[in-house]
Structure formats: C-alpha cells, structure tokens
Amino acid sequence: MVYIDPKDRSRKENYQLLSSAVIPRPIAFVTSQNEDGVVNAAPYSFFNVITAEPPLISISVGRRNGKTVKDTGRNILKGKEFVVHLVDEEIVQQMNQSAAEYPSNVSEVKETGLTLTDSQIVRVPSIKEAKIRMECKLHHAVALGTEEEASCDLLIGEVVMFHIADDFYKDGKVIADGLNLVSRLGGADYARIKDTFTLQRPEMK
C-alpha cells in the first residue's frame, strides 16, 4: 500500500492523482455566452449531480493565480446561464478540440464544426449534435481553495430544461444502451460506456 500526503505534493501532482483515481468521470461539454454574443464551448470532467429537488448539477472551473480566467467561468458568473451537453463517441473529437486555447472572441463551436441551435429557456445556444443536453441557470457559485487563494469556482446550475434524443428516452429514464457516452479517466485517457449490468437494490430480510 502506498501512502501519500497531499500536503507534500504540488497542485499539479494532486490533480494527476485525483483525476486518475476518481474514474470514470462524466464529461460536461458546456456552452456559455459572453456579452458580445460569442458562444464558448469547453469540457469539464469535475462534474456531477447534486440533488433532484430542484434538479441541480455542479461543475468545477479552475482558476489561475486565484483569478477566474477561463471563458466558461467568466461567462456563467456574469450571464447566469449555460448549457451542459453529455459527450458521446460521435462528438468526442470535437469536444477534445474545443479544449485548445482559443481566444475569447473565437467560438469553439464554429471552430470544431459543430452546430448551434436555440435553447428553449436560456439565452445560451445549445449544440445540436449532442443527444442529451441540459439548459441551466446559475443557482449558486462558490470560490474554493486555500485560505490564501481560490483555486476553482464551483458552479451549481439548476436544470430548467432537458433535451433527450427520442431513441434514448423511455419510461422516464435515459437508456444507456446505444448512447455510447464517453467518460474521462486520468491523463489523456477516456473510456466508452458500453459494458453495463444490473443489480437490484436488496431488501432487508
């Protein structure tokens, strides 16, 4: 057994350890919009569900030197709206390309060849090719980090509209079979969600 004290490691080393140990992680492919109308798209795998009443999800957007510098963080904190798309095999290459360091006045959606479509409730457009997307309004934002410096913005969004492709919705649930969602592992590694099994919750005897 290896014992590691995170206080003895750098931020980068702890990130590498966490991101390779907590796997697989769902990917939030997030669109946001700046004051000039440019639609930003970026992937985040520090992402998950919080609660169902109201339906809340969270994404963690990293800071640099304590400052919110990523377009996603700035846009959401100012505009209070965003859209989360789940990533499947058909759009994984475009998702990966969007992680390049594009200038703030350049839309990753256009650069990667994806298609924007109007959302139903929020002003931020959605990505048409995504089979599952969630329109969100910012519910709460929390700056987290050390006493000296915040290292991320934890952005909690309330889902105000779900979009699910017809083939993958039945009886109130998303059908995983055939959806071919992609999850994040450590480093540059990903996993395909194809091998599933079922376990019913046990009852007390």
UniProtKB/TrEMBL annotation:
<keyword id="KW-0285">Flavoprotein</keyword>
<dbReference type="Pfam" id="PF01613">
    <property type="entry name" value="Flavin_Reduct"/>
</dbReference>
<dbReference type="InterPro" id="IPR012349">
    <property type="entry name" value="Split_barrel_FMN-bd"/>
</dbReference>
<dbReference type="InterPro" id="IPR002563">
    <property type="entry name" value="Flavin_Rdtase-like_dom"/>
</dbReference>
<feature type="domain" description="Flavin reductase like">
    <location>
        <begin position="20"/>
        <end position="176"/>
    </location>
</feature>
<keyword id="KW-0288">FMN</keyword>
<comment type="similarity">
    <text>Belongs to the flavoredoxin family.</text>
</comment>
<protein>
    <submittedName>
        <fullName>Flavin reductase family protein</fullName>
    </submittedName>
</protein>
